[in-house]
Write a structure and sequence with these properties.
Layout lengths: L1 H20 L13 H16 L4 E11 L13 E8 L2 E9 L13 E8 L4 E5 L2 E5 L11 H5 L13 H7 L7 H4 L6 H5 L5 E2 L4 E3 L2 E8 L3 E6 L5 E8 L5 E14 L2 E12 L12 E14 L16 E4 L4 E4 L7 H13 L3 H33 L1
Length: 382
């Protein structure tokens, strides 16, 4: 009797758990998630990234150009990239093989290296042996965060654009990515056009995972996985409305930190724009991929956010308005001149007198020359 009573209690407990204690989502034929709940889940993941002390993603970005239009560069060498943030600090690095069309003599190991660093008040950009010191980040800085951009995480909104010329160039006022928020970033674009989005009544499977599907007809279809922080597993984007611009899929998500999931590979099929000639409409132009190499969270030292500047680099200082070359100490012409001057001043009195006599003689000769020219002009006037 006692055993039967325990079994009854266990069954009732299980039933109560299934009714009240089970997870709120049921990935089955129908989802229980509302659009508001999906937005909230996306915001929590976004805020989790924003609250990190520091983060870095290191990856390959590769593209295969398909059906290029006339005058399009068909070659896109593999590109190794690093994106990082630490508070207000910003870091981007690229290492790309040189284009054969631009440099036919480029060897298999010849690459173009470039860096961008921002530490809150001064931006430094370097490509090859050319370095620029700028009052703020340039447009290129907002175009090189491919990995997090493909996750639709806008992690650059705190970088305020200050100059009027850059605001005009970016077309975004004080926020570099505001224009993209409305069309691309999550959950901002859903919030902006919430009345036009809806959740499909059934889930769909993407890469073995059942996903919620959120759609804005003729604009956007997003496959969302609540098990990985409501990140996107697939997205089809239309621009202009009704014209497919890109189809992106993420593969093999892995947990990298508390509440942080990253795909090991992402693939984007990019179509010719609607402005292209009609024969290219609906045809693929690029197949682009991001392949993760390494990711780090909350452990980046301050010296990670530095640019190596080699000897021989030309430095364009736009803050102070001059350009100079970085020389090694033993070959620096300014330092060498100072050393020679000091050695002359510290030499024996006879040596100092010899230099003084040379300067005096040269000065007298120059005065005689000027006086002769003046007398000649006076005589010619008379």
């Amino acid at each position: 009797m006692k055993r039967h009573l325990l079994q009854l209690i266990a069954c009732q407990t299980l039933m109560l758990f299934l009714i009240f204690g089970a997870p709120r989502y049921t990935i089955a034929d129908k989802t229980e998630y509302s659009l508001d709940e999906i937005i909230k889940g996306m915001e929590e993941t976004y805020n989790r990234w924003k609250s990190l002390d520091s983060w870095m993603v290191h990856y390959h970005h590769v593209r295969e150009r398909v059906n290029p239009r006339p005058n399009m560069i068909a070659e896109y060498p593999p590109n190794e990239m690093v994106n990082a943030r630490k508070g207000k600090w910003f870091y981007a690095y690229e290492s790309q093989k040189q284009l054969k069309s631009l440099n036919p003599r480029a060897g298999p190991n010849d690459r173009i290296h470039s860096w961008i660093v921002w530490k809150g008040d001064v931006a430094v950009e370097r490509e090859g042996l050319h370095v620029s010191i700028l009052p703020e980040l340039g447009p290129r800085a907002y175009q090189c965060f491919f990995y997090t951009g493909w996750l639709f995480l806008d992690l650059l909104t705190d970088l305020e654009v200050r100059s009027a010329s850059l605001k005009k160039l970016l077309g975004s006022g004080s926020r570099p990515s505001a224009e993209y928020d409305d069309l691309y970033m999550l959950p901002q674009c859903i919030i902006k056009h919430k009345s036009e989005y809806h959740v499909w009544p059934k889930c769909e499977v993407v890469e073995g995972a059942e996903c919620l599907v959120v759609e804005r007809p003729n604009h956007d279809v997003i496959w969302v996985d609540p098990r990985i922080g409501f990140l996107t597993r697939r997205r089809r984007y239309y621009q202009p409305p009704g014209y497919l611009a890109a189809d992106l899929t993420h593969y093999d998500f892995q947990k990298k930190a508390s509440g942080i999931w990253l795909p090991q590979r992402s693939k984007s099929i990019i179509y010719h724009p609607a402005t292209a000639p009609e024969p290219y409409h609906g045809k693929v132009v690029d197949i682009a991929q991001n392949i993760l190499i390494e990711a780090r969270f909350n452990d980046l030292p301050d010296d990670f956010f530095q640019i190596p500047i080699p000897d021989g680099a030309t430095i364009h200082d736009y803050l102070r308005g001059f350009t100079y070359v970085k020389h090694p100490p033993q070959n620096d012409p300014v330092q060498s001149a100072l050393v020679r001057a000091r050695s002359m001043l510290k030499g024996d009195p006879s040596r100092r007198r010899s230099w003084l006599s040379i300067v005096f003689t040269a000065g007298c000769g120059l005065q005689c020359l000027v006086l002769g020219l003046l007398l000649y002009r006076l005589k010619k006037v008379k």
